[in-house]
Amino acid sequence: MESFVNELFHHFPPIKERLDVIEAILRGIENRENILLECDSNVEPESYIEFISKLYNKPIQWIHLSKGMHTSDVLGGLKPVNNSVEWIDGPLTKAIKNNYMIVISGLEAAGPELVEKLNMLLDDARALTLPAESGETEPVFLKDDAIIIGIKYFRKSKNQSTISRAFRNRFTAIILPEIISKDSLKELIENYFYYENIKNTADIISQIHLLLVHYAKERLIGTDRMEGYTYGLVNLYRFLDYLSTTNIELNQDEDLKNFLLEGIDFSYLNEISNIQERNTIREEIRQLIDNPDSLEFLNEVKQLKKKLNKVKDIEFKLKNNKIYWDPEKHWRDANTGKASWDRDFKELHQGINIDTPETGGDVKEGPDAWYGADTQGNKGVGEPGHGGGAWGYRTEELYQQFLQKRQGLNNYDLGIPINVFKETLGKELEKLILQLEHLFDPEYIIRRNYEDRGSRVDVRKYLSFQSGKGNQKIFDKTIFEKEFKSLKELELLFLINKGRRIFHFEYSVAILVAMMSAAEILSNHQIPFGVVGYSDLENFKKAIDLQWYKKLEQDYNELIENQLYYGIINNWSGDTVQDAKVIEEISKYFSYDARTKIMIIFSDFRGSRGKINIEKEIESYDYQMLRKTYQKLSEQGYIFLGISLGPRNLGQPIFEHHINITTENYIHLPRIMNEKLSDLIHKYHE
């Protein structure tokens, strides 16, 4: 019992602000009351619900209501099964029968018919009446220990719809407070790390969190937005997860400071669209970390990271080396015996076997042997022979042969079938899409239509047909159309650098998930978009290959979805090319009707040849050409989102709107990119 309580409160610490709320919720549940949790958008009611679920050991049935939803989608309805029509329970009916904890969100979207059903369930009757076609002659009653919780967010304007007073009175309303007490935040942080010796760490992190909350509330940031930013515990825990899960060596204090600032970027600042605002806050946080009083804090973080890295290594080893036997029963003392020195040793073989074109020489010096005059021995003159240059003279023919030989050395493909991808990441993708769906606020147009086949059965039509008074058009083909007037004349083009230098598994997966989620969202909102990969596929340095996975004018269907998916995961074996030339070429593919043209570029922005250090990269010809091309197209009205892949973050000095993706934060790319796209659309497209 003690371990259960400790585990329960580790995930949901009973800080001061929560105690009265928890007491009120539990008292209401014990008195068989329906609970309505009301809060602002930066408060997370889900954490309270998870706590109650674990405390009462009840699985949760989430019911998210939305505009245009049928009552049958919640209660159940007649559905075609094989060659017959059968009643199928909806999520609410199923939850009542199985005594699940019922959590309903989006109450303001409930239609009159559904509200009438819920009224009976929520008042003293505690019952749900199902239609006659369900086969239930009696109402379905809630169990004595049933729990019903509603979630309602505060309105940000009077134009937003809300629930009626009569409907609200069927709940016991409890307001969830925002956690803005420094002591409570420190307790949450210390609890997260199992109360390690991190008092100074908790103090600094809570200061940073409260500073950003203050900036957001007072509109010191987000002044160019209709709605301000909101920071809550989601951002705080995202930063704590970053600290605990990122495996990195922190040898110098400067490494540690940069590591912490990157965490703040990923958890908070990447949401800020204004670069100047972002840099100002980052500098203020750096000063806070650089303060001489923060030395103890830095030492604490170092010690904490050492422990976390060690624990992570142990967990990784246990995970990858599963023990299928009981170590205690098979324990024995170490007894290695003495080493034996009379064994036969195998001969060591030096050198590597390479496959370069034959040139008559006896020695092959490796894949770069075509550099003739730079080889050892005869300096590329005459026959190679015994240590001379592997190739006597560098010729264009031999160079092309060499490049062809290089192509098949590695398999630059992800090799994940689309069905495996959907099984693995499908739920996360759906969650992401649902979270971002509200950003565009579409209007719904309902068009009623009935036919003699389909998947949704209209009850009234079915009963009329059964009694001989109606025809066999019993299937509801009602269409819910979304009105996107504000999104017309908007076009987006995604450019993916498919050079083999870019092929890094984490980056490739991040691009794949980000693109598939963006494609789903944009197609749902009927926004034209195109996706193109670019590289020198043949490695001949003669041409730039543009691989179109989806063109602007194409509809996004299953065929195009497969084309996009397999286009992204395959053919990363080409050579890198100049980004500037590609951007200038792709800009011509926008249609004449487009008023807002947005280009999203995934690249490391190092051009066709990477340099040793960042200074050389910025001075390089390819990089300077990219800067000039960007400036020219920006003046012509094109909007860019540069997504830098790799730790060098070369997109920041060029692009006004940019994201940096590294091995530490690549899992956040889909969320960050789609939120950034939403901000750009709101900002530049009226």
Describe this structure in words.
- This protein is an alpha/beta fold and about 675 residues long.
- Helix content is about 40%, strand content about 15%.
- It contains 22 helices and 19 strands.
- The strands form six sheets. The chain has a six-stranded mixed sheet with strand order 16-15-14-17-18-19, sandwiched between helices. Strands 2-5-8-1-9 form a five-stranded parallel sheet, sandwiched between helices.
- β3 and β4 form a beta hairpin.
- α8 (about 180-190) packs across α9, α9 (about 200-215) packs across α13 and α15 (about 420-435) packs across α17.
- It is globular and about 80 Å long.
- The chain starts with a helix and ends with a helix.
- The model is unreliable at about 315-320, about 345-395, about 405-410 and about 435-440 (pLDDT under 50).
